[in-house]
TrEMBL record:
Pfam families: GlutR_dimer, GlutR_N, Shikimate_DH. It catalyses: (S)-4-amino-5-oxopentanoate + tRNA(Glu) + NADP(+) = L-glutamyl-tRNA(Glu) + NADPH + H(+). During catalysis, the active site Cys acts as a nucleophile attacking the alpha-carbonyl group of tRNA-bound glutamate with the formation of a thioester intermediate between enzyme and glutamate, and the concomitant release of tRNA(Glu). The thioester intermediate is finally reduced by direct hydride transfer from NADPH, to form the product GSA. Residues 317-413 form the Tetrapyrrole biosynthesis glutamyl-tRNA reductase dimerisation domain. Pathway: Porphyrin-containing compound metabolism; protoporphyrin-IX biosynthesis; 5-aminolevulinate from L-glutamyl-tRNA(Glu): step 1/2. NADP(+) binds at residues 185-190. One of its GO terms (molecular function) is glutamyl-tRNA reductase activity. This is Glutamyl-tRNA reductase. Its EC number is 1.2.1.70.
Amino acid sequence: MNLLVLGVNYHTAPVAVRERLAFTPAEVPTALAMLSAEHGVSEAAIVSTCNRTELYCNTREPQQVLAWLASTRGHRIEDIEPHLYLLNGGDAASHAFRVASGLDSMVLGETQILGQLKDAERFAREAGTMGVLLNGVFQRAFSVAKEVRTQTRIGAASVSMAAASVRLAERLFPSVASCKVLFIGAGEMIDLCATHFHARGPKQITVANRTIERGEILAQKFGGEAILLSDLPSRLAEFDIVVTSTAAPLPIVGKGMVERALKERKHRPIFMVDLAVPRDVEEEVGNLSDIYLYTVDDLAEVVRQGQESRASEVESAEAIISERVGDFHRWVASRALVPTIRDLKDYADRIARHELEKAQKKLAAGENAEAVLAEFSRQMANKFMHAPLAALNNVLPEEQENTLATVRRLYRLHE
């Protein structure tokens, strides 16, 4: 078993690169089937969020996985390789544990990534690409994340992306209470953002979504209204603040749509936060006057403020992870012993079964039971000891010391 993690995240690549390597939820099942069909790849899972795309595999062919990622995303290897990280074994396990615990997140200690990892595990399990190794990694990652959050205060007072969005909006507008806010999408991130903005008492909250039913559920939660994405061109001009996070593969807010909205608003400014990867808002929109557009990368500095004070909590969390990586190493090593343990048990079972059949036949023939049991016991001992005794008698002189020490340890032959 060989654990490999190949990925890109906000540390190694800007959003313009990450969005080209991202997988939408609809793409993941097919992608998993294709990846696991690659030569040398026996297990696979895909984690794809706004901040990272990572492939978790059981493989000894890292270049095969790299070539697959480049091919399926439509890029040359040399174009994406500078942005990628490739981790093996214990380093890969440590990375998975840090990700699950929120230590590798833009928002230190955030909990959303844990749910995203659980989604990745579920997708892989349903696709049939989750085997013994990856199941062991993911289940341990979930356990480590719980331990870190229980034993440290790593997530205390963390500045979330949603809170950062509110902070930035309040730099542009005197008060969110005087603004009309539009949320595009109805997923977990939008729900979180809507909760933060709703706490500021905005003048109006509207949710735009592909399906009106799901949009209405979220809008009702905050006393707002729901509209369809198709209504955006005619309604965009109404809103002072726009927050978007969908799984759309292409931008849904274009430059032309925004230009028309600004003209209708007589160039009153619009504050936009695009939390989607791939991006929901065309990059050129950020060049328009009176538009203040922020992506997930633009929020990085805001969410880092105040995190230095939790350095001791990070240290405690890293210590827990280091210990659990050691446990993972021991578990992987024990899995390597399984075939030999199974063969040894089968060998013993065959001897016992054969000698038992011989004893039963003698008893059925009326032979003395005490004599049959004595012979049964002697034959069992002889058969079990034949292989190790033969090995000792044939051991080479230079191997004798190590072999004797191993045999004495296995059979507990203490001095």
